[in-house]
Specification:
heterodimer, A: alpha+beta, 4-stranded mixed sheet, globular, B: about 0% strand, iron-sulfur (chain A), 4Fe4S_Fe-S-bd (chain A), 4Fe-4S (chain A), iron (chain A), 4Fe-4S dicluster domain-containing protein (chain A)
């Protein structure tokens, strides 16, 4: 296996140009996701989805404009991959999480399983889709289209270890310059998903950008959930035995 | 920035223009809730069929009916499950892997076993062919049946949907109870003309309704804010009323026949109870799906509990000042 590859999205230098959204669609042949005028901000894309694999959020505050390019997190412990019943979702040699479109049968389980609301099903096509971190480009030794197109290097691609070092240095710089609101998101291997393959430097709380403050991979509770189901099943069996043999 | 007012007045939270953080379940009505209902009925019938084999004189009429109910529920349920897929022609891909981390993979294998065994048991009971194999299949249904009725709770609880995941302790009991109420109701309909045979199915219906009601009440109490979508969902309220009312009617329907007088009143009460319990079991499944959707679509239910968790763990202010 190659080393783990990742994205470091430094939102402090994002200018909201949406070149990443366009490059992603162009390279991956992602169809349009409707032409909606949302009238809330310069963001008319709205959210990640089956046909939106990069999404630039735009938040206007009294002091500044916050812009951030969101993407699939390629979690260390990925709920979508855990719950996929067909094996369509798999972990690549780059430690990324990818859907095999020729295997997915559109069961839809990954959609509510993702704690970040990333993956979705295309209703006309019936299958689940999300960012592949340009698996095909990586196999050819190229960086993903979004990172290639980003004019400010807000989106950086590379070995995850190197990106984490770079992010720590950038965070220290920002804090030294008085930007104490800067923080990393998804970089901690101790978080509820074991850390993200695509992590961020944010300038506000994650929920401001539409990100969950403390995401958790729910399959970590699976043993206890099966335990509760087993107790309920035994309760049913015991009660039904009573209906047959008890009483009269 | 979108500052939103949460459902509980004191908790303010930030969100991205009030937009959901997670994706709502895309499962359709009526497919998915009907599958939950049919799978539950199949599971509870299967349990009855297995226990019938342990009776001193098995192969009674109720045993045959239980086998038929288990088979029909599983087969019809499978139909709805396949129709639910985005690519129904690829439904056999469910059998590509055996994946313990996926409740849907485990459920697919379980459904395959339940469907095969119950079809075998029912076919044997109806045709009289291979009674030994039919008996073995019916006994095996005692294992697959109750799991069939409760695994769907694990399936939906293993998602990021707050109203589902946080209810992971109670949902198996809610579904198990609802399955017994639903199967008991069908059994009561099948025994309307023979009240003397109705005692086991009536008890099953009453116990199931009680279990479902208790599990629902505990769930709504324990979950607090996260249970709001259940409390606000009209179908969940209807399900509660129908379970309580149907359970009470089912219990009452036993009285006239005991006194010997109620040749009409007893069956009438039993039919009303069966109708109420069936409607209640259906409302529960549709209501749980709708409450799950509502829970995912309002960012309050995702963000507020997570924020509270961080604050409680002292991790609320990492990386910089709050807004």
């Amino acid at each position: 296996m190659s080393e783990r590859m990742g994205f470091f999205t430094d939102t402090s230098v994002c200018i909201g140009c949406k070149a990443c959204e366009v490059a992603c669609k162009e390279w991956n042949g992602v169809p349009d996701d409707g032409f909606v005028f949302r009238a809330t901000s310069y963001d008319n894309t709205g959210s990640l989805g089956a046909s939106t694999w990069r999404h630039v959020a735009f938040i206007e505050t009294p002091d500044s404009w916050l812009m951030a390019s969101d993407v699939c997190k390629h979690c260390t412990h990925a709920a979508c991959l855990d719950v996929c019943p067909t094996g369509a979702l798999f972990r690549t040699e780059f430690d990324t999480v990818v859907v095999q479109a020729d295997v997915c049968n559109g069961c839809g389980y990954c959609v509510p399983a993702c704690p970040y609301g990333v993956i979705d099903r295309r209703e006309d096509d019936g299958r689940a889709w999300k960012c592949t971190m340009c698996y095909d480009r990586q196999l050819g030794g190229l960086e993903p289209a979004c990172a290639k197109a980003c004019p400010t290097d807000s989106i950086q691609f590379g070995p995850l270890d190197e990106l984490l070092e770079r992010a720590d240095a950038r965070l220290a710089d920002l804090h030294a310059n008085g930007r104490t609101e800067a923080r990393l998101y998804g970089e901690d291997p101790g978080d509820g998903v074991g850390g993200d393959g695509a992590f961020f430097l944010l300038m506000a709380e994650p929920e401001v950008y539409g990100l969950p403050p403390d995401p958790v991979v729910t399959t970590r509770d699976l043993p206890s959930m099966w335990g509760w189901a087993a107790v309920a099943a035994l309760t049913m069996a015991g009660a039904t035995a009573w209906t047959r043999f008890g009483g009269r | 920035m979108a500052r939103e007012r949460a459902m509980v007045p004191e908790a303010e939270f930030s969100s991205y223009y009030g937009r959901p953080v997670i994706k709502a379940p895309i499962w359709h009505e009526p497919h998915m809730p009907l599958y939950l209902y049919l799978g539950g009925v199949s599971g509870a019938c299967a349990l009855s069929a297995a226990l019938e084999e342990l009776q001193p004189r098995p192969h009674g009429r109720l045993g045959t009916l239980a086998r038929l109910g288990a088979a029909l529920g599983a087969v019809l349920g499978t139909g709805f499950l396949i129709a639910e897929l985005g690519r129904p022609e690829r439904f056999l891909n469910m059998m590509r892997v055996f994946k313990p981390t996926s409740p849907m993979s485990m459920g697919s294998w379980l459904l395959a076993a339940q469907g095969g065994l119950s079809t075998m048991a029912a076919a044997s009971a109806v045709t009289g062919v291979l009674p030994g194999a039919g008996r073995a299949a019916a006994l095996s249904l005692g294992v697959t049946g109750p799991l069939m009725a409760t695994y769907t709770a694990v399936l939906i609880a293993d998602t990021a949907v707050p109203a589902w995941h946080e209810a992971r302790h109670e949902l198996p009991f809610l579904f198990g109870g609802s399955a017994m109420a639903g199967a008991g109701a069908l059994g009561m309909l099948a025994t309307l003309a023979r009240p003397e045979e109705a005692a086991p199915v009536r008890r099953m219906a009453v116990f199931g309704a009680a279990l479902e009601t208790a599990a629902g009440a505990v769930m709504e109490r324990r979950l607090g804010l996260v249970a709001e979508p259940y409390r606000r969902e009209p179908l969940m309220r209807a399900a509660r009323l129908l379970a309580v009312g149907g359970g009470a009617l089912a219990a009452l329907s036993a009285l006239p026949s005991r006194r010997g007088g109620g040749r009409v009143l007893g069956p009438a009460l039993a039919a009303a109870a069966a109708a109420a319990l069936t409607a209640g079991a259906l409302c529960t499944r549709f209501g749980v799906l709708r409450a799950g959707r509502a829970s995912a679509e309002d960012p309050a239910y995702t963000i507020i509990p997570q924020r509270q968790r961080l604050t409680a763990a002292g991790r609320g202010t990492e990386g910089g000042s709050a807004q």
